[in-house]
Amino acid sequence: MTHPNEELLNTYFKAAESGDLEALGEVFADNICAHIAGNHTLSGDYQGKEAVFDFFGKLAERSEGTARLNLQEALTDDWFAVALVEVAGRAGSETLDGERAALVLRVQDGRFVEFWSHHYDQQKMNRAGPKAVAMLIQSTDHGPSRSPH
Questions:
Q1: Which of 85, 99, 102, 112 is nearest to 9 (CA)?
Q2: What is the DSSP letter of 92?
Q3: DSSP conformation class of 123
Q4: pLDDT of 39-94, one tens digit each?
Q5: Helix, strand, or coil (residue 6)
Q6: How many Cα atoms occupy the beta-carbon half-sphere of 48 within 13 Å?
Q7: CB 125 within 8 Å of CB 132
Q8: How far apart are CA 119 and CA 139, in angstroms?
């Protein structure tokens, strides 16, 4: 049996891949807070659905359509969903093929209320800037998914 937070995570990835803003709106709580790590023009905290969607819009604008996000593992429990991913593509002069990241999403009442992005090589992401961060949102490949439940 699939854990509800694993289903929520899969819904997020499918909506992000297809650009379905309505479905993304359903998985995010109104008061969602996104914490984007790094030292670039889009790093920082985004509070509320409108601010998070504005952030996504900036990412889409700057991504130039070159990226793939490959889900390697999904871990869920009653409070969190964690997506371990590999990024493929280019961002400026940086090649991000195989760049590893973790997206940690906190769940409350069946919706994501907070998320953090963590990158294995944050300095590389800082050099690549907003285009690299865009790769984490733009497209996905539904790979293995696991839940302890």
A1: 112
A2: T
A3: H
A4: 777 789 999 999 998 887 776 666 666 666 678 899 999 999 999 988 766 666 66
A5: helix
A6: 3
A7: yes
A8: 17
Exposed, middle or buried, 85 (CB in 10 Å: 0-12/13-18/19+)?
buried
User: Which of 78, 79, 85 shows the shortest CA–CA distance to 149?
Assistant: 78
**Planar angle of CA 12, 19, 61, nearest 5 degrees:** 120
List 46's β-bridge partners, or say none. Answer: 34
pTM: 0.76
pLDDT in tens, 110-126: 999 999 988 776 666 65
Q: How many CB atoms are located within 10 Å of the residue 49 CB?
A: 15
CB 125 within 8 A of CB 117: no
**Terminal-residue alpha carbon distance, the chain:** 8
What distances in angstroms separate CA 23 from CA 26, 32, 81, 126, one per listed residue?
Answer: 5, 15, 17, 30
| C-alpha 110: how far from chain center | 17
| Structural domains of the chain in order of their starting residue, each with its CATH number | 4-141 (3.10.450.50)
Q: Which two tokens stand for residue 110?
A: 């069946």
